[in-house]
Amino acid sequence: MEKKIINRAILAIFTVIAILSFTTTHAADPSPLQDFCVGVDDPFSAVFVNGKFCKNPKKVTVNDFLYKGFDIASEIDNPQGVEATLVNVDKFPGLNTLGAFAVIKGTLYAGFVTTEYKLYDTILNEGDIIVFPQGLIHFQLNLCNSTALAIAAFGSQNPGRINVVDGLFGTTPKILDKVLTKAYQVNKTIIEELRSQFSNNYDHVSIDSARSLLLETLSQKSKDLEA
Ligand SMILES: *[C@@H]1O[C@H](CO)[C@@H](O)[C@H](O)[C@H]1NC(C)=O
Ligand SMILES: *[C@@H]1O[C@H](CO)[C@@H](O)[C@H](O)[C@H]1NC(C)=O
């Protein structure tokens, strides 16, 4: 009898914890279901729904991800002498749930690639802001012979960053040669040349061969088990 009561108490506590955790896990914006959602108010020019209607991806241009205007200070007409310019999804439709990249000084060429391999690219000047949709490969390059400065801000406690080339050619341990020669359709010599540009531990060739052999043996073993 006593045990039953204790069990009930435990169940009640778990229920309370479950309810608490249910309410706290919904504090963030929902994860995107597509590469991007350029917010529009008119459902007739849109396809998906995610807070705002999302603009038809076929009609989306790089300008939807671009906000210009922070190169000019706002008119100030209040006794505090302060003016804040709010840029939200209504002024900047591509911002919808994303972080932003702002150019403070100089000029940068920037772009990103969607999961359909479409490139959106543009030139960013001082005061311009672009959004890079979450998880999509993107780049910035200073094409001018002068310093550029930019600030990136993301809606996360722990915004991670992976440099794509380092992620392929500078990993520890190395990604197996076979993966890279297949993916890039070039020979091992070229892969090693690329690795030598990005890897800090290029001399661990023997370790790589041992790993390669081990992985091949394991693959073979799994296949034998299946048969
Ligand atoms: C770039 O700027 C530096 C410093 O002003 C100058 O020495 C150099 O010649 C410039 N290079 C080109 C390609 O304009
Ligand atoms: C690898 O490919 C390059 C470029 O096609 C070629 O010049 C080189 O001889 C090749 N190396 C080997 C070992 O096949």
TrEMBL record:
Superkingdom as given in the UniProt entry: Eukaryota
Family: Belongs to the germin family.
Organism of this sequence: Chenopodium quinoa (Quinoa)
Residues noted as binding Mn(2+) in the record, renumbered to the chain: H138
Record keywords: Apoplast, Disulfide bond, Manganese, Metal-binding, Secreted, Signal
Keyword Aminoacyl-tRNA synthetase: no
PANTHER family: GERMIN-LIKE PROTEIN SUBFAMILY 3 MEMBER 3
UniProt domain Cupin type-1: residue ranges: 68-192
Name of protein: Germin-like protein
GO molecular function annotation: manganese ion binding
Listed GO CC annotations: apoplast
InterPro entries xref list: Cupin_1, Germin, RmlC-like_jellyroll, RmlC_Cupin_sf
Signal peptide positions on this chain: 1-27
Location(s), subcellular: Secreted, Extracellular space, Apoplast
Membrane-spanning ranges: none
